[in-house]
Design goal:
Blueprint: H1 9-17, H2 38-46, E1 49-55, E2 61-67, E3 73-77, E4 80-85, H3 93-96, E5 102-109, E6 114-125, E7 134-146, H4 160-163, H5 180-188, E8 191-198, E9 208-215, E10 222-223, E11 230-231, H6 243-247
Antiparallel strand pairs: 1-2, 1-5, 3-4, 4-7, 5-6, 6-7, 8-9, 10-11
Length: 249
């Protein structure tokens, strides 16, 4: 979540708590770039799904999945990513797709434990195509890779027939707490995705939305019995990457 070689107050505070020497960021340009390397561009274009982070009208962050045949995301330039997809009905992402909106993006290949991230801003929304209802162009603000730690390996296969039926999915019911069935699923899960944001004002160069992966053995996410609070360990990884928690500070 570092932009223009600046750390915002949340990042600085969390780095200090974890006793990270901020001098390591002097060379951060090698790791965090304002463009996508060709390797990342090709990776995003080859994926059948991407994880997107967005914020809704009440400034709440959401992590969403978008799917399509490989190639539904294309990169016409090292600073641009075009996405043509059909957002799942009821997903808050649908209302967040507008010009000027911040977006976080994660490409993750669970079978190979490879993942790359990109944060940016939507600069164009195009609804003229008939094959996909949600088409938007993202301008890159920050692009970087992540280590494969804690990614639980599995093969993902997209049913192309069901891709054309996404619009038929019934929107989920909204609730302020999790049901017992949902709690049961979460307690058995080994993977989830989390979004966060830091937008003090529109002119702050550190503003943005982030989305990331969290993984562990089944049961690593704990749920309170009332279904309102989740808890999980922040496993040790690369000490310089606190991007998600930094942004929600």
């Amino acid at each position: 979540s570092m932009r223009h070689n600046k750390l915002h107050e949340g990042e600085i505070a969390l780095q200090k708590i974890n006793k990270v020497d901020l001098a390591i960021y002097q060379d951060a340009g090698r790791i965090m770039r304002p463009f996508m390397p060709d390797q990342h561009r090709n990776f995003f274009e080859s994926q059948p799904y991407l994880i997107l982070g967005s914020i809704d009208e009440e400034s709440r962050p959401w992590a969403s999945i978008v799917v399509g045949k490989p190639g539904f995301a294309t990169s016409p330039h090292e600073t641009l990513l075009q996405i043509c997809t059909n957002i799942i009905p009821g997903d808050p992402l649908k209302k967040s797709i507008r010009s000027g909106a911040y977006i976080g993006l994660l490409g993750i290949e669970l079978a190979t434990k490879r993942r790359n991230r990109m944060n940016g801003k939507i600069i164009k929304v195009d609804s003229s195509q008939t094959s996909a209802t949600d088409n938007f162009l993202v301008k890159v603000d920050l692009s970087f890779g992540n280590c494969p730690k804690y990614i639980q390996s599995r093969a993902i296969k997209i049913d192309e027939k069901k891709l054309s039926e996404i619009h038929q999915i019934q929107p989920p019911a909204l609730s302020s707490s999790l049901s017992q069935d949902q709690i049961g699923v979460i307690r058995k899960s080994d993977t989830f995705f989390i979004a966060s944001s830091y937008i003090p004002n529109e002119t702050d160069p550190s503003s943005g939305v982030d989305v990331s992966h969290r993984g562990g053995k089944p049961g690593f996410v704990q749920v309170q019995d009332d279904g309102t609070t989740l808890k999980w360990p922040d496993y040790v990884g690369k000490r310089v990457n606190y991007n998600t928690f930094d942004m929600s500070y």
